Amino acid sequence: MKNLLENNEVAELSNELIYRHYLMNRGKIRELFCEMTLAEYIALHMIASESKSSIIYEGRTYLKDLSDKMQMTIRQTSKMITELKDRGLVLWSHDGSGKEGTYVTITDTGSSLLARQEACLKDYYGKVIEAFGKENLIKLLQMMKQLDTVMTSKIEEMEVSEENDRDDGIDE
């Protein structure tokens, strides 16, 4: 890879990627979320989707599954779900004594809020897709998924390498 790109090209491209990521997460997108955060929207959307499609779990979204899907710790997920529960957007229950798992379901209030947020996002993103082009967006999303896969694998390779380096230091 280093043969393909000069060090300054790698730096320039990585800085642009970091800057674009920063703008996407920090910029005007936040203004589209008036009544909830982006993470809360994603969580409610996942919970609502599970409630419509889950035959096995009877509409329940288990905290562990939500945590895994959102790539958050159980503690972070629990804190967010507590806040959603306190606002009346989800119900938080458990199987048996609770050791079998805790799960959430969306309330009618949560469904209404989610519907309002989705309408706002559909309006905005409908205009974006019209201007950018549906095919362009599909290609971009496919490429972003590929990039995410590559980035994740490189991070995992670095972690394994660091772990091996620590293990080699112990043996000496």
In a few lines, what is going on in this structure?
With 172 residues, the chain is mainly α. The protein is built from six helices and three strands.
Structure description:
This protein has 172 residues and is mainly alpha-helical. It folds into 3 domains: 1-32; 36-116, Arc Repressor Mutant, subunit A; 133-172. Helices cover 70% and strands 7% of the residues. Helix 2 crosses helix 5 (108-132). The longest helix has 38 residues, at 134-171. It is flat, with a radius of gyration of 21 Å. The two termini are 32 Å apart.
- Tally of helical segments: 6
Low-confidence stretches: none
Number of domains as seen in the coordinates: 3
Arithmetic mean pLDDT: 85
> Any idea of the CATH class of the largest domain?
Mainly Alpha
> What percent of residues adopt helix (DSSP H or I)?
55-70%
The CATH superfamily of the largest domain bears the name Winged helix-like DNA-binding domain superfamily/Winged helix DNA-binding domain
N-to-C SSE series? HHEHHEEHH
In whole angstroms, the N-to-C terminal distance is 32 Å
Helix/strand-derived category reads: mainly alpha
Rg, rounded, reads 21 Å
- Total beta-strand segments: 3
Shape: flat
CATH topology of the largest domain, what is it called?
Arc Repressor Mutant, subunit A
Main sheet overview: 3 strands, antiparallel
Question: What's the architecture of the largest domain in CATH terms?
Answer: Orthogonal Bundle
Spatial order of strands in the largest sheet = 1-3-2
